[in-house]
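Worked example 3 (structure in, sequence out).
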């Protein structure tokens, strides 16, 4: 039975592999290292950010919110919620596996081609280098698969076009014609590449005629003017066919660059600037400080009426100590001293800082939206501290 079980396991792997398609090549792919457990996801800040803030709400916003609140309170999930989480995990891993395939096609060479034609990508590549830009933008695209599916699908579509052009019948036939003609005319690849390395069509034609003429012998040499022109024209026609296909690829790469440019928000551009000017080897892609359930739990506790009042009491005692001595507290000050404190701008300065605190919480997706719904207005916080 061991052999039967092994065969069955391999069949299951094959079925899973065939059920997930590479968005670029349309080949079946396996999950491999992307088969993350819930523990794997929640132990990785970036994965948890994508899964909790974006992917879960895209599956069922109400269920996602309920799970977050239960985890915040360290309460158990129901069987139905566990099932939802497991189904979401499987779908998330499949999507990320597909995104990983798209990421592989954003090579330094492709980034270089985009940089030649798009100013924003040129700035990114110039700031951190093509190698690092390819890595950064590749990871960014993986995130877009979850956070901005339409943009991800557009990028995938353009890269698929590039792949199909490069690996299509037209490209294969053109390459074969060039190969056959070079062999027939006894011209090396290196000579051909040097001959076409010019921006001027006329110069390319002259270079090709020269390359052809140096190989002519016998009776062909006697008719070199006619023969070299004929052969050079054939090579130039093949070169033009190749250039046309390359331009089609570049048109799609420009479209990829345009989509990417639209997704690089000011925070990302700022981080890229920091990486360049501070000589960082890695660009941090996490945006914000409210990315995980732990972050949400912490901020929730910091923004309760009790916490706000506690911070005000601490600030008030600090002001009392500053004015009347370090051992003084509000509770043992005189009525006149209390009145002096109350007539300062302490209350307004405290509210200013609390509003700054709220504005300092950054994130995208479910968790920050849940928090924003709970944040108290300046007026409401004023009433809280006035009630002390």
């Amino acid at each position: 039975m061991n052999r039967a079980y092994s065969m069955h396991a391999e069949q299951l792997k094959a079925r899973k592999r065939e059920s997930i398609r590479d968005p670029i090549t349309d080949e079946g792919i396996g999950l491999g290292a992307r088969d993350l457990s819930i523990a794997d996801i929640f132990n990785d800040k970036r994965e948890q950010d994508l899964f909790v803030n974006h992917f879960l709400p895209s599956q069922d916003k109400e269920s996602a919110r309920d799970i977050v609140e239960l985890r915040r309170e360290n309460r158990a999930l129901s069987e139905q919620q566990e099932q939802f989480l497991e189904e979401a995990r499987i779908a998330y891993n499949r999507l990320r596996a597909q995104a990983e395939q798209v990421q592989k096609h954003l090579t330094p060479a492709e980034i270089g081609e985009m940089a030649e034609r798009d100013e924003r990508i040129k700035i990114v590549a110039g700031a951190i280098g093509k190698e690092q830009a390819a890595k950064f933008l590749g990871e960014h695209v993986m995130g877009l698969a979850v956070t901005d599916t339409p943009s991800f699908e557009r990028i995938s579509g353009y890269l698929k076009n590039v792949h199909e052009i490069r690996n299509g019948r037209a490209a294969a036939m053109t390459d074969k014609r060039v190969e056959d003609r070079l062999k027939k005319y006894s011209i090396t690849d290196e000579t051909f590449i040097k001959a076409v390395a010019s921006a001027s069509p006329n110069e390319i034609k002259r270079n090709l005629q020269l390359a052809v003429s140096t190989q002519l012998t016998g009776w062909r040499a006697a008719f070199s003017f006619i023969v070299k022109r004929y052969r050079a024209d054939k090579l130039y026609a093949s070169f033009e066919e190749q250039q046309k296909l390359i331009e089609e690829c570049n048109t799609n790469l420009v479209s990829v660059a345009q989509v990417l440019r639209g997704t690089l928000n000011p925070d990302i551009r700022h981080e890229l600037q920091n990486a360049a000017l501070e000589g960082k080897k890695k660009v941090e892609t996490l945006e914000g400080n409210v990315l995980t359930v732990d972050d949400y739990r912490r901020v929730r506790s910091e923004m309760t009426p009790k916490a706000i009042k506690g911070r005000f009491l601490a600030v008030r005692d600090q002001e009392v100590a500053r004015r009347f001595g370090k051992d003084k507290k509000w509770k043992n000050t005189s009525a006149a001293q209390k009145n002096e404190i109350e007539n300062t701008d302490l209350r307004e300065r405290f509210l200013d800082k609390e509003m700054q605190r709220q504005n300092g919480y950054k994130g995208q997706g479910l968790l920050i939206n849940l928090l924003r719904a709970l944040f108290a207005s300046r007026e409401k916080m004023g009433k809280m501290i006035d009630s002390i």
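Notes: The chain is about 75% helix and 0% strand. Residues 7-15 have pLDDT under 50 and may be disordered.
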